[in-house]
Amino acid sequence: MSPALPMLSAGCTGWQSAMDPMGTEAHELRALIWVFITVAAVVWVLVMLVLAAAIMRRHPPTSRPISPSGDSERRAAIAVSSAVVATVLVIAALTLESYLVTRQLYASGADPVVVRVRGYQWWWEITYNNAKPARVFTTANELHVPVGRQVSIELAAADVIHSFWVPNLAGKQDLIPGRDNQIAFTASRAGTYRGQCAEFCGLQHAHMGLLVIAESPDEFAAWCNAQLEDATVPDDAEQESGEHVVTGKACAACHTIRGTSAAGTLGPDLTHLASRSFIAAGVLPMTRGSLAAWIVDPQTIKPGNNMPMVALTADELRAASAYLASLK
Description:
Shape: elongated
Structural class: alpha+beta
Order of helices and strands: HHHEEEEEEEEEEHHHEEHHH
Oligomer: single chain
């Protein structure tokens, strides 16, 4: 066996691979991929065999002009016509198969979890809809879903075209300004799966990631109930000072922290910021140090983003980072 084969195969697994499906729709898409690969391989082999036969076929040298016979002309016409018909049939069959599989990505099941995902440069706003307004809440960059229950994603874009893609769970779907799109998937196994914007959307396109966390229905319900709560009340003097800094500076004009005076809508909701695994749409791990670095100079970490630099003293920065790190 070639030593390169295991290296190539390693790229077909992992938390961001369409060849490692963890959902019903993703399994269907992988099967479709293999159908296309198999058909393309068979066609390629047949073409190579015909080409090889033509190259190896030898004619005795002659000085007379070639005068094709009627039989050879008819055989050539039949061969070309058969190839054209076969091509049309193969393309039609692949098109039909693709349609039947991909339409499942947009079919709504019974009692789905309805989530609205809105793309920004360069982060994801995630709103969990509910028939009861009191149970509607908004988070960012981290999507929690229950295993075994369909999730219907309503997609929209606030600025430019983005594309929602979680390879382990579903196919791609564009988010287009002024137009609502939809995609659905059902996670079949608990785990954490990485998603990515799959449409070039500007300077930080590569840093527009999200996590999908599939968990048991009970864990999902507990997470939703926690997200509905107001922000954690500071439990020491440093965190209390940090709350005053965050709500008293420009942060409150762009971000919402429920239970405080911060009610901005331009940036991500920070009510339960510290419960997420990453900040800045997957750029930095969720730590107090990362929060402080992001506050001090967001443009160095993610150039071109819309968060301005907020002038803070060293004491204010320590207090603000302590408070934000407490928002579980």
